[in-house]
Amino acid sequence: MNLPYPHLLAPLDLGFTQLKNRVLMGSMHTGLEESNDGFKKLAAFYAERAKGGVGLIVTGGFSPNFRGRLHPLSAQFSSGRAARAHRTITEAVHEHGGKIALQLLHAGRYAMHPFSLSASEIKAPISKFTPSAMSERQILNTIKDFSKSAELAREAGYDGIEIMGSEGYLINQFICARSNTRYDGWGGSYQNRIRFPIEIVKAVRERVGHDFIIIFRLSMLDLVEQGSTHDEVVELAKALEAAGVTIINTGVGWHEARIPTIATQVPRAAFSWVTERLKGEVSIPLVTCNRINTPEVAENILASGQADMVSMARPFLADAEFVVKAEQDKADDINTCIACNQACLDHVFKGKRASCLVNPQACYETELVISPAVNKRRVAVVGGGMAGMSCAVTAAERGFDVVLFEKSDKLGGQFNLAMQIPGKEEFKESIRYFTRKVAQFNIEVRLNQRVDAQMLKAFDEVVIATGVKPRIPAIQGIDHPKAIDYQTLIRDKPTLGSRVAVVGAGGIGIDVATMITEPEDHKLEDWLKDWGIDQTMSHEGGLLPQPHYVAQRQVWLLQRKPGKVGKGPGKTTGWIHRRTLEKRGVELLGGVSYEKIDDAGLHITLEGQLHILPADHIIICAGQESVNDLAAQLESQGQKPHIIGGAEKAGELDAKRAIRQGVELAIAL
């Protein structure tokens, strides 16, 4: 039998055991680890991925002791009681023929509590607390704690563990001079600084025996000052292999690094070259990671010899059946991760349960259950954007007779605009997936169809998902030829002048400012240079002196609200947007009052002073208004419509809420 992705789907022999393919589901903290009844929900979450064909799953991080917890109430794995509780997870995975490893993570100076410990008493720039420097006794006890937790993981039924040695957590803090200024046997020379990870691996291997997987997450590219050089990474990798590591997994960037590594702006497989640099230096399998979200990308990495396995985390939030669909040569049926971070990382960093923007069932497998409808009725969904499509597809899956109306000539709604923004090209994958689901469920689609209440009389249920339109602010001269709303700009792509003012610095304003300053023919190498990443890896941490980017046009990004401009809607991505705009010379102005638009440009008041921005064009990104004129008409004829997505609430464009509302409503019908 010819496999569609022969390298990706090939088994991997580890000697004492075999993985059925080259896919590792990377560690993700979901928030279920600490919640009531969370392990049953975690078991269901991991079971779906094991059933979906993943070769090896890695859990979210569990601390080996109290001081290593990320938060005071974060998950810990250090007792027989914990091991017994985790059997719910391991048994669920093994029932579907999967393998699973427990990640052991000590936060070190990233811990958000006053009991934090690190190699040295140096506060992390992203933490509120200054850690205490670990004593010799605390170091030795922490090594024992790692080995004890590994032994308990084996008792719990895990097939292995992953030791978190990257991303700037405790082990990484010992390795790098940035956070290790010790003068004893655990600091100073590089050989002393890497004693800690090596001793942990030796202690773990001695405790668990030789037939247990030990993955070490090795920071191969720190992306911070005083980080490791490539030669140092090679030295440590060899020592880890000698100490008993089974697999080395690539880590890229500390959490405090000011370089994006997994957001949608990062090109696909942007860091596979980092893993490739270590190939041939060790004989154990190497795993590469970051922005691998399709079987084609993964296959190309493996076929070209850049790595022995690929790690994908968020793609398994988006689609639990990723591997099975690849095996069946149905890549077009995969719900592709768009790397938006909005429902996964943004949620976790706010202390909420993780999920997925394009798949709201992720981490809600026991709650958002799609079951056959008892009374199968006719359902009209008005609006073919993401809210409408998610509702239509879920309703059809339940057995309803669904008709989907769309006033334009194609489905996708606002995503048709979003996918044209540089760095948001992935959004087209969501349109592809949902459009395909619409076809597979034989949903009747009526394009170029404007709907009135009379047309909907024959339906039992009516869903209004008509989305939003640009809000046009009351600025004198708003109808001047220089003024263009964002939808017209993105849709029609008029030629812009060399000086552009963007009115509104929300998510859309940021996207527009990014789009109009994007250089042409931007390749991966250009992106890496823009962010100061050293592909030769000869500098410490893999950093080049930050290059200065000169924009081709002058752009002002303006907002009425005083304070920081360009934060963006995403908690974990806002800084990326802002840094990108700053590098491109975009002038960010907050606390602006808009006076008028005329031939001279945009007249504003800033800090009590009148200014004229000599803009050739003024792009209006001042928010949106709901489009739901149908509701009142339907109610007047005795029908009670369901309103979802932007039609219900405009605000910032929120695809996460829109898609989830569509699924939830369809389940509730």
Can you describe this structure?
Keywords: Flavoprotein, FMN, Iron, Iron-sulfur, Metal-binding, Oxidoreductase. Residues 8-332 form the NADH:flavin oxidoreductase/NADH oxidase N-terminal domain. Its cofactor is [4Fe-4S] cluster; FMN. The protein is α/β, with parallel strands linked by helices. The protein folds into three domains: 12-349, TIM Barrel, CATH 3.20.20; 378-470 and 625-668, NAD(P)-binding Rossmann-like Domain (Rossmann fold, 3-Layer(aba) Sandwich); 483-622, FAD/NAD(P)-binding domain, CATH 3.50.50.60. Helices cover 30% and strands 17% of the residues. It is built from 21 helices and 27 strands. An eight-stranded parallel β-barrel has the order 3-4-5-8-9-10-11-12, surrounded by six helices. Helix 7 links the parallel strand 9 (213-221) and strand 10. Helix 3 (136-155) packs parallel to helix 6 and helix 17 (507-517) runs parallel beside helix 19 (574-583). It starts with 11 loop residues before the first strand and ends with a helix.
What characteristics describe this protein?
single chain, 669 residues, alpha/beta, TIM Barrel, Rossmann fold, FAD/NAD(P)-binding domain, 3 domains, eight-stranded parallel barrel, five-stranded parallel β-sheet, 21 helices, 30% helix, globular, FMN binding, oxidoreductase, 2,4-dienoyl-CoA reductase (NADPH) activity, OxRdtase_FMN_N, FMN
